[in-house]
Amino acid sequence: MMAIVLNLPFKAKPFGDENSFFDESKNLAFYLKGSMDFDKVTLTKAPAPVFIYTPVFLLTSDNPSNDDLWYRGVAVNFILITLSLMLIYRTVKTFFDEKIGVVACILFFAFPIHFYYVFGVTAEVPAFFASAIIVFSWSRIYFNSTKISNWFLFCFGLWLLIMCRPNTLLVLALGFLVLFYSYFKRKDFFNEFGRKLFITFTVCGVFCFSTLQLTKLFNSGKQVYDQEGLFYFVAHQGRYQFREEPLDFRFWDDEIRPDSKDYKNWKIKANDLELYRLKTGKPNSEVYKEYLIKDIIENPFITIRQFFVKSFFGQVYIVNSITPQKFHIGPFNGPLFYWLFLFFVNLINILIIVGALIFLFKTKDLVKYWSLWAIVLALLLFHGMMYMEPRYMFPARVPLYVMSAAGLYRLSFVKKFSNFTSRLILRR
Predict the structure, then answer these.
(1) How far apart are CA 245 and CA 15, in angstroms?
(2) What are the phi and psi torsion angles at 283 (to 5°)?
(3) Which of 98, 206, 325, 339 is most deeply buried (CB count within 10 A of its CB)?
(4) Which ranges of 58-97 would DSSP assign to H, the alpha helix?
(5) Which helix (H) or strand (E) holds 38?
(6) Does pTM top 0.90 for this prediction?
(7) What is the 8-class DSSP label of residue 333?
(8) CA-wise closest residue to 232 among 148, 150, 291
(9) Helix (H, G, I), strand (E, B), or coil: what is residue 61?
(10) Strands (DSSP E) along 228-359, which ranges?
């Protein structure tokens, strides 16, 4: 599958946006080798991917090329995606049945976006792996809450996910809400898991806070991104995403959508805010914060509409890096095959979402499966209110496969196909 994806006419950015995780992992590895000063070592965004890629970047010559390092990053991603597939299967097998596990694996391969991200040194694959750890460890905990190693693994998965994608911090908030609900409505669940879940969430929160404090030590006295300023910058983008053009799904940059009304208005407003900052002398973050709060209060309908459009957009996959005219897969080329390709890719994704919705509406115990829907909901809530790109929803694909497999298995034709396929694969 990786070989197939590698030969598609569009590619993942090998070093990610702005080379951030790649450069930071490389610099840390060079520092540990003694060939770079500490003043160039930074952790400006999520720290966990840097911790993951740095060890393999150490396994090179004293002066490796970027390609040498990229090969090792791809190798790490390959291992993490493979482990994730195994964890997804084991999760479904534990919660449901091995035949439903086969359905989950088929869905995994039917939608090859994972293999696209394998070729980039980014946060996507580590975050996906973290989600797989969370759902797997929770499936083990649910049937054996006394095994401490499962709780350690669960806490580690939560920490890793948040440190790969800080936007998933809402998972902890949703977890506390589940505890609050179960205390009044599901005493059996609360008595079994309540105290241990509370301790786990608290410990995870402390670890996350401590890790972020560690990054401040790395960044002390260095020129790095202002995290608060970056947050407001992205939030400001989100205020203009699908504001007056709810059907314009083009990527948000100068090259792809210079003629977009929302994009132009975003730039105009950013310039106005900068002039206001210079005039008043207020801090940049304060200027943006005032504007964002005021804009949300004054435009509630637009905010609500944006939330639902963004939530939908997060499930839609469009190739922005190549025009329909330049699209080609083997002998097939041109706009017709471009749109056919997108149609089939998104059709598969719609099928996965439909399966997950069937599961959520049919299951009688949503509290049991809280870790599945909480990851999806946390990402939808955050990016629906902030700024959305489909890649930001990538960690949610793990629970989507689990829920979708269970939901689709309720359909008779899927069940027959799964039973037949399982006999071939499982030999029983």
Answers:
(1) 31
(2) -60, 150
(3) 98
(4) 66-95
(5) none
(6) yes
(7) E
(8) 291
(9) coil
(10) 328-329, 332-333
332 beta partners: 329
Full pLDDT tens readout for the chain, 428 residues: 878 777 777 777 777 766 688 888 998 999 888 888 888 888 888 899 999 999 999 988 778 888 899 999 999 999 999 999 999 999 999 999 899 999 999 999 888 788 888 888 899 999 999 999 999 999 999 999 999 999 999 999 999 999 999 889 999 999 999 999 999 999 999 999 999 999 999 999 999 999 988 888 877 777 776 677 778 888 899 999 999 998 888 888 777 788 889 999 999 998 998 898 888 888 888 888 899 999 999 999 999 999 999 999 998 888 777 778 888 777 778 888 888 888 888 899 999 999 999 999 999 889 999 999 999 999 999 999 998 988 899 999 999 999 999 999 998 888 888 888 888 887 76
Which amino acid type is present at position 272? D
Q: What angle do CA 179, 408, 381 make, to 5 degrees?
A: 40
Residues 6+ apart with CB under 8 A from 138: 154, 371
